[in-house]
Design brief:
By secondary structure, the protein is of the alpha+beta class. Helix content is 24%, strand content 32%.
Length: 270
């Protein structure tokens, strides 16, 4: 029997929190948690503003409970973490939520598990960087997985919070993560405005072709955030959100201006 691999997986990560212009005075309605083996993005549901409720207050309290429960290991699974933190949140409102955690697995192949849980229209992409064939001297990331949006109907995402039922319908899955794999996690401000090819374009500029390390994590997350913001304010852009709107019989043109939060995390093994 092969000896168990005891390498500890961890994330090297960077985050960009970029509230839309109109919400910058209150730092927007998105929020996040970053730890060396855990990342999470939440997005307050804007519909609460019609009830004179600031959804940003919910997400701020919500992520504080997520962080505390995670740090104290007071959860059975990511779905339990998502639901329990929501139950503890007193502020009115609701939020989407996406989480990912690296869990050490004693595997003879030296692979480790990436556990994920997603509720609503925030999401993540799992990328595998590879050296390009030929003489280009560049590296390219390949898409191994992209999460799907969970919605009751168009632009009405699954969510957790005030007056919601538990357990939620959060979707959990796992991946076999290896050294240098990449997770791009974000609120819908990213995925409503950027196509996968846009994300790869930013990503590939920062991957070292020899080591496959991301050379500038903050630069990569800033690139994604800035590109999404530019496209979000473009009234003529045929955005992913506009394409989906048309598919549901809605008239919409351009990008979708919104709060933008993105985490770029690369898997490392000790």
């Amino acid at each position: 029997m092969a000896q168990a691999d005891k390498r500890r997986p961890y994330f090297e990560s960077a985050v960009t929190l970029n509230p839309m212009y109109e919400k910058r005075y209150k730092k927007g309605e998105d929020n996040y948690v970053v730890r060396d083996q855990f990342i999470c993005v939440t997005d307050g549901v804007g519909g609460w503003q019609r009830k004179m409720v600031d959804p940003g207050l919910f997400t701020k309290e919500y992520v504080s409970h997520i962080a505390t429960l995670y740090d104290q290991k007071q959860y059975k699974s990511l779905k339990d973490l998502l639901d329990t933190a929501s139950k503890l949140t007193v502020a009115k409102g609701s939020s989407t939520c996406v989480m990912a955690q690296l869990v050490e697995v004693r595997d003879p192949k030296g692979q480790d598990s990436l556990m994920t849980c997603n509720l609503g229209d925030s999401g993540y992409m799992w990328l595998v960087p590879k050296a390009s064939p030929g003489q280009s001297g560049k590296a390219e990331a390949e898409i191994a997985f992209k999460s799907e949006s969970q919605q009751h109907r168009f632009n009405a995402p699954f969510q957790t919070g005030t007056d919601k039922k538990w357990p939620t319908k959060a979707f959990s899955t796992s991946h076999r993560a290896q050294h240098n794999d990449i997770v791009v996690m974000g609120s819908d401000g990213i995925f409503d405005n950027l196509f996968p090819s846009d994300i790869l374009s930013c990503m590939n500029d920062f991957i070292d072709p020899k080591t496959l390390n991301i050379t500038d994590l903050q630069g990569t997350s800033n690139c994604l955030s800035t590109l999404a913001e530019i496209k979000g304010y473009d009234p003529k852009y045929e955005s992913p959100f506009a394409i989906e709107a048309k598919a549901h019989g809605r008239k919409f043109r351009g990008g979708k201006s919104d709060d933008i939060t993105v985490i770029v995390a690369q898997v490392k093994l000790d």
